[in-house]
């Protein structure tokens, strides 16, 4: 039997996209991410998974490239239903090509042949089945992650619409290279958004990621203005973005948008094409934490060095200093914050999503199963990756 290539398999799992415009001579311009690729007929966008077929933009649909049940703290969201689980799905492809990507098997599909050799494959799954899986696994949130969600936004919205019917929260774990159009398309169906702010240097973005800094900053500002719950993550990479000057610029920018945005400073570990660089030391995370606090941020968290970073994994009330949530890694050891999100000592409000919204009665959506889809409901993420956060 002839084995289909990954490109052939993905071509069978597409629909016409929504986030694009038609151009002259069968060209299209995609608006899903800030690259805004102009794609001639028969060609692909930078992400490789959106392509022009006869003047129509085909986009990914009806499959997952990875699926797992994760603590919400792993996304990381520290101010969204602490201690709950997130039903996490990814597709394939990315608009960036970060050398240290820990999800490179899914994200670099069709760009790096090693991804296909390592087993990147689509697994058929409908939006209804994903939502049903989340309910069965007692998750409160459905999250698009493991590849760049922006480039597969049409599919995420299809899932999120159904998740909302069942009172689930919805979230993105993203590089933030978004456009206004995509954020407006997402907004009615999205509760929370994690943005990676990977550096504060445009050259670093261009050279090491294949993007630019400005759209990421605009995304953080737009999300805040739109009322989406936002948390920002900076993976502190030795020699790439870990100078105190650069970290200070990042912290000051986040604080300028809102001092209430949680800023996660997480430890790098060697991965993908960056195997020679050392882990980020806990001392560097502690310095980063202090830089965040000095910039005026109310909530700064160290990540990926559980138990080695003192009290910097915890949430404290910025008003009275009360310990509210005690964490070690992704584990919530203690939480005295109620569903209303007020400090029990001084009654000051703590921003975040602390209770399950009451949007509709919780119900299981009946779906027609096929043998293939049952197989797809197995956890297909690599176990090793559950040890670390997602950046
Ligand atoms: S999602 Fe981004 S990279 Fe992909 S085709 Fe659209 S604009 Fe280009």
Q: Can you tell me about this structure?
A:
It is a single chain. The chain is of the alpha/beta class. The protein has a domain at 6-60. The protein is 26% helix and 20% strand. The protein has helices spanning 6-11, 104-107, 113-117, 127-136, 153-165, 180-186, 202-209, 213-226, 244-257, 282-294, 371-376, and strands at 14-16, 20-22, 28-30, 38-39, 51-53, 56-60, 63-64, 66-71, 85-90, 123-124, 141-144, 169-174, 192-196, 229-236, 263-267, 300-303, 315-316, 323-328, 331-335. The protein has an eight-stranded mixed beta sheet with strand order 8-9-11-12-13-14-15-16. It has a three-stranded antiparallel beta sheet with strand order 1-6-5, with no helix packed on it. The chain is globular, with a radius of gyration of 20 Å. The two termini are 39 Å apart. The model is unreliable at 361-387 (pLDDT under 50). Bound molecules: iron/sulfur cluster. Iron/sulfur cluster is lined by residues 30, 32-33, 35-37, 45-47, 50, 95, 151.
């Amino acid at each position: 039997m002839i084995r289909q290539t990954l490109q052939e398999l993905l071509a069978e799992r597409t629909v016409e996209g929504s986030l694009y415009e038609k151009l002259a001579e069968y060209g299209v311009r995609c608006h899903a991410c800030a690259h805004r690729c102009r794609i001639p007929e028969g060609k692909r966008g930078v992400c490789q998974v959106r392509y022009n077929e006869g003047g129509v933009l085909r986009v990914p649909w009806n499959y997952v490239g990875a699926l797992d049940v994760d603590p919400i703290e792993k996304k990381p969201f520290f101010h969204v239903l602490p201690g709950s689980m997130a039903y996490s799905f990814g597709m394939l492809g990315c608009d960036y090509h970060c050398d240290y990507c820990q999800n490179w098997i899914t994200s670099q599909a069709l760009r790096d042949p090693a991804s296909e050799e390592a087993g990147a494959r689509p697994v058929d799954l409908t939006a209804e089945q994903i939502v049903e899986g989340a309910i069965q696994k007692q998750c409160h949130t459905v999250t698009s992650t493991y590849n760049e969600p922006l480039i597969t936004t049409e599919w995420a919205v299809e899932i999120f619409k159904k998740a909302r019917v069942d009172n689930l929260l919805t979230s993105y774990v993203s590089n933030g290279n978004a456009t206004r159009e995509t954020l407006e398309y997402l907004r009615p169906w999205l509760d929370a958004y994690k943005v990676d702010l990977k550096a504060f240097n445009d050259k670093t973005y261009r050279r090491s990621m294949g993007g630019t800094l400005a759209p990421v900053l605009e995304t953080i500002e737009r999300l805040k203005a739109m009322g989406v719950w936002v948390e920002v993550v900076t993976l502190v990479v030795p020699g790439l973005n870990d100078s105190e000057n650069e970290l200070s610029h990042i912290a000051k920018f986040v604080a300028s948008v809102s001092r209430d945005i949680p800023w996660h400073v997480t430890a790098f570990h060697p991965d993908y094409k960056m195997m020679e660089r050392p882990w980020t030391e806990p001392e560097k995370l502690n310095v980063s934490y202090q830089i965040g606090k000095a910039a005026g941020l109310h909530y700064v968290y160290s990540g990926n060095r559980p138990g080695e970073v003192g009290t910097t994994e915890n949430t404290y009330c910025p008003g009275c200093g009360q310990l509210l949530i005690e964490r070690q890694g992704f584990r919530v050891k203690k939480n005295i914050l109620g569903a209303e999100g007020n400090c029990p000592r001084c009654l000051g409000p703590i921003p975040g999503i602390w209770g399950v919204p009451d949007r509709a009665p919780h119900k299981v959506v009946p779906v027609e199963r096929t043998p293939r889809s049952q197989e797809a409901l197995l956890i297909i993420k690599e176990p090793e990756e559950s040890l670390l956060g997602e950046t």
